[in-house]
Write a structure and sequence with these properties.
The chain is α/β, with parallel strands linked by helices and 383 residues long. It contains 11 helices and 16 strands. The chain has a 7-stranded parallel β-sheet with strand order 3-2-1-4-5-9-14, sandwiched between helices. α3 runs parallel beside α5 and α8 crosses α10. The protein is globular. The C terminus is likely disordered.
Length: 383
């Protein structure tokens, strides 16, 4: 490419692996990252010395102008992630994700950008995954009621007849049904991305990540995915707490596979549009917790199924990856057991030093937010 590739949030969990994948292909890489003290005390050691760092927030037009100057392509990883604790968090999510994306796109327009765009999107856009009723075929279940959850009835029923449903892989063509502020902001990001690409005539791709895990996940923060929460619990000698009955199905995909998908989307001229990025092989939360505990060692505490639940969480969502295979040429390579063995002993990213009260507060939120449906990009305000 004639110019560097910009990776926003490039010092974070997924972004740093995208950087590594691009460097391995001989690309020149620049990152925009605020190196925010709530996430990084200093520039991370794992960030390659060859990378040009523009330190700044993606919502800052001046920082964006410096970052986009002369770039040939963009991988937009910076985002505020995780399940918000209340609607009072909405302004922070909308600012970090949608305003940040808008400022970035405006900066690219002013710079005359003509290269490909890749957006880190998320499976949370779908809400519940795919389901089939024996009588009514493909259906979209209603949100689960508090009464059903309190009674331990975790499986959603058919909205027409109430019968049990069979979970199915969710394709990119599924109608969006965002069920959190975070999910709504990711859908808005996709639409902003598409509008910009149409106006400017540039190729664009949105990658809908499923449950990403692997080295460099942040340890013990409210923004960690469930794999990191469970791994942190095991490292502290605590049993992972599994919500509901542990039967929730998700699609766990290794961060190196996600990074490779970004490299392919940036460098190999795929068809524009959205792509599910996952393994295509559903695993239950209970299975993941057990696999991780087993890989941690013979003395590791076994997971505890608590029956706890969180309103608004979805039951099953896992990827139909046929489009990514056919049009992006992408298939996940890291096997689940291999990835869990690596994660069990991988270095997680230590958070900056915090007070004991702050640590306990965040751990409490981790346990509360332990439902396992959020992927992990890197917060734009907390890079």
């Amino acid at each position: 490419m004639d110019g560097p590739i910009l990776v926003t949030g490039g010092a974070g969990f997924i972004g740093s692996h995208v950087v590594d994948a691009l460097l391995a292909r001989g690309c020149e890489v620049r990152i925009l990252d605020s190196i925010h003290p709530a996430v990084h005390a200093v520039r991370p050691d794992y960030l390659d010395h060859r990378v040009e760092l523009v330190q700044g927030d993606v919502r800052d037009p001046e920082a964006v102008a410096r970052a986009v100057r002369g770039v040939a392509a963009v991988s937009h990883q910076a985002a505020m992630v995780g399940l918000e604790s209340s609607f009072a968090d909405a302004p922070e999510y909308v600012s970090g994700n949608d305003l940040g994306t808008t400022v970035l796109l405006a900066g690219l327009a002013q710079a005359g950008f003509a290269g490909p765009l890749v957006l880190a999107s998320s499976m949370v856009i779908y809400g519940e995954g795919g389901y089939a009723c024996p009588e009514h075929g493909s259906v979209r279940p209603l949100p689960r009621s508090p009464a059903d959850l309190e009674a331990g009835r975790f499986e959603p029923g058919c909205p027409e007849c109430g019968r049990a449903l069979e979970p199915r892989h969710v394709p990119e063509s599924a109608a969006p049904d965002p069920r959190s502020v975070y999910a709504a902001t990711k859908l808005a990001q996709e639409r902003l991305w598409t509008l910009f690409a149409r106006e400017r005539g540039v190729p664009q791709v949105a990658l809908r990540y499923h449950n990403v895990y692997g080295p460099r996940m942040p340890r013990e923060t409210p923004y960690a995915g469930v794999a990191s929460i469970f791994r942190s619990a095991l490292a502290a000698g605590r049993a992972p707490s599994v919500f509901e009955d542990g039967g929730q199905l998700r699609d766990f995909v290794h961060v190196r596979d996600v990074a490779r998908a970004n490299a392919v989307a940036l460098l190999e001229d795929p068809a524009p549009g959205v792509y599910n990025i996952g393994s295509g092989r559903p695993r239950s939360i209970g299975e993941m917790a057990g696999e991780l505990a087993g890989a941690h060692g013979p003395g590791a505490p076994r997971p505890v199924v608590t029956g706890e639940f969180r309103l608004g969480d979805v039951r099953h969502v896992f990827a139909d990856v046929s489009r990514a295979a056919a049009e992006l040429g992408f298939q996940a390579r890291v096997e689940f057991a291999e990835g869990m063995r690596e994660l069990a002993h991988a270095e997680l990213r230590e958070p900056p030093r915090r007070s004991p009260d702050r640590v306990e507060e965040e751990l409490g939120r981790d346990r509360l937010n332990g439902q396992q449906h959020e992927d992990l990009a890197e917060p734009s305000a907390r890079q």
